[in-house]
Amino acid sequence: MEAGRQENQDDVTRFWREEREDGAVYSAYLKKVTYRSQAQLEDEHEREFSHLMWETQKIRVIKAGTLEKLVESLSTVRGELDSTYVNIFLATYRTFATPQQVLKLLIDRYQMLKLCCEDDRTELNELQLKTIKSVISVWLDTYPEDFREPPNYPCLHTLEKFSLHFLPDSDLAGRARHRIERLMKDHTGADANEIEFRFSICEEVDHMIDNEYHKPLTFNDISSHTFAQQLTHRDAELFRKVVPHHCLGAVWARRGKKGGKEAASVLATIEQFNRVSLRVIATILKTRDHKTSQRAKIVQKWIHIAQELRELKNFSSLKAIISGLQSHPVYRLRRTWSSLPKDTMVLFEELSEIFSGENNQLNSRELLMKEATAKFPDLDSQNKTLKRRNMQKRQSWIDNGIVQGTVPYLGTFLTDLTMIDTANPDMTEEGLINFEKHRKEFEVLAQLKLLQSAAQIYNFKEDTQFWIWFDSVRVYNDNESHELSCAIEPPMEGSAKIKKKSASLGHKPAKFDSSKFGLFACGLEDRSSLSSIPDTITASLAGPLVGHLLSEISLARPMMSHSSSTSSVISSDSDTSSSPYRSCDTYVIRVSLEPSDQASTHIYKSIMLCNTDHTNTVIQKVLEKYSLEGQPEDYCLLQILPDGGELLIPERSNVFYALNSSIDLKFVVRTRAEHETLTLRRKGKRRGKKLSL
């Protein structure tokens, strides 16, 4: 009996074949559907007729299609609502369509089906009409930001007009009208708030005079517990406000022409991450006149704050503090680190290990999935004192009924989505929208939304005095940080030679390995390239540490042996068995376009290089990535060498085999005319040097 039941439950859905029709490709599955009750199936009398108790149904899942076919698939062949597909479509469609386009197609399809119903009324058509209405209703409730289009709100007006004519008995028209009125009121209120803000400076001064004077806080005045609570309060608030589809690779990476405004909720989280890391560095480096023991106490306090964040399951600020402590200007202070107590160093190493880059940052991923919805963290330590302390805290949480929320490190999700965006084409060879790509994206977005629910649990109040101190901390750029660090502990003689030598070693190319894949795929290079990014971009990303964040997001490589201006070292010898993105026949290469100011605000963009790609194919990919029109024959492709030189890739060669695979895979594309001019100029300089000698 049990064996028969197990056979009945296993493999009820099996892939059958791929089916194609004009404008769409489907995966067809065969599903065994029982139409007898479980009691009937277990009945001894009915068992001999068990082959009559189920039937096989064909289920089609769209893999790729035109926009029209994707919209049509929102209802099944039987006219029912496919909730899974609807959720995926509404979460990801913005990368290949606009709200106006989708709404128009839904309305057009409804009108077409309505006419068919009038001519030949069928139950199927009626069900499809009901499904389209449900899709629009779910869309309006679930993604209200799609309809926020001031000042005219075209989608809402279109929806209202459509509903009044075709759905007079529905509440859709009233909901659309109510949404318009509310958004117009909010928009007017926002303008009023801006005016009020402009003229509130004098009032603020009066307010400061009238209020009781509070002595400004210092770093030592703030307890580690308070520090962690306030950072968690801010991080949780920002994470809850993240719009999941803003994290999509095509949106977050600003691959399109919209300038990245849609990713504001993501940029706000990145800015806070940078603000924390920069203050870790600043509070340690501005202690030039302090004794080593005093500076060590500041480092020790940051480690204790990080441990408090770990207990609160705030992985965002935890990662920010670890990144600040591992930054080169701080980590090179050997005397300071050697002054730390042994148990503090053990704690630091354990916290750093959470974000180890090994095997696609497996530690942090497993920990996040394990503790995402847990009541409190599962703390452990190799140090007996720390282990005993953690056990006491755990028991205290259990006794007091304390439940902790979760704030993840957003960079993990951004990396995964950027990887999916880079590794999967938007369109198939037939010119259809590759919807399988968006199914993969949705899996990541679903995890993110689950964690946003967990972030609701926190119940901390904002401490104004803390944030006054936090915002008053003067932070430093890379050069200032390096100078301050060297003033505290001057470089050892010969260290520059060692650093130069170590920088030239180990730069091996990465085949497509997600375990070592930083967000240079988003179009940003390491920190050394930030000086070339327009002020509008660097301002929104809170300055110099953004390069560190973007190169380290989901990478968490300890910055113990490289300077802040050194590109992330990519290795190809890590375990790749668990990576769904790796292929032995592909590389991810970084390519810039010269002159860079003609195409994009970013310096580097990443493209997938296959083992069949020739020079013109690669150049064409680059032009498409930068949204430029042109003939590949008018451009040339060059690999950038470590010594500053360039390797010209021959015009008709296979780039995969022509490149130098022993160095970092960075390339530049420039017009042939510019390359010839640059070559002549360089020859002239070399000739001038010889004459002067």
Descriptive account of the structure:
It is a single chain. The chain has about 700 residues and is of the alpha+beta class. It has 3 domains: about 1-185, Son of sevenless (SoS) protein, Chain S, domain 1; about 220-470, Son of Sevenless (SoS) protein, Chain S, domain 2 (Orthogonal Bundle); about 510-690, Phosphatidylinositol 3-kinase Catalytic Subunit, Chain A, domain 1 (Ubiquitin-like (UB roll), Roll), CATH 3.10.20.90. Helix content is about 55%, strand content about 10%. The chain contains 30 helices and 9 strands. It has helices at about 1-10, 40, 45, 65-70, 85-90, 100-120, 125-140, 155-165, 170-200, 200-210, 225-240, 250, 265-285, 290-310, 315-325, 330, 335-340, 340-355, 360-370, 385-400, 410-425, 435-455, 465-470, 480-490, 495-505, 535-540, 545-550, 615-625, 655-660, 670-690, and strands at about 15-20, 25-35, 55-65, 435, 585-595, 605-610, 635-640, 645-650, 665-670. Strand 7 and strand 8 (about 645-650) form a beta hairpin. The longest helix has 27 residues, at about 170-200. The radius of gyration is 29 Å and the shape is globular. The N and C termini lie far apart (about 95 Å). Mean pLDDT is about 75; it is low at about 1-10, about 190-210, about 255-260, about 495-585 and about 595-600.
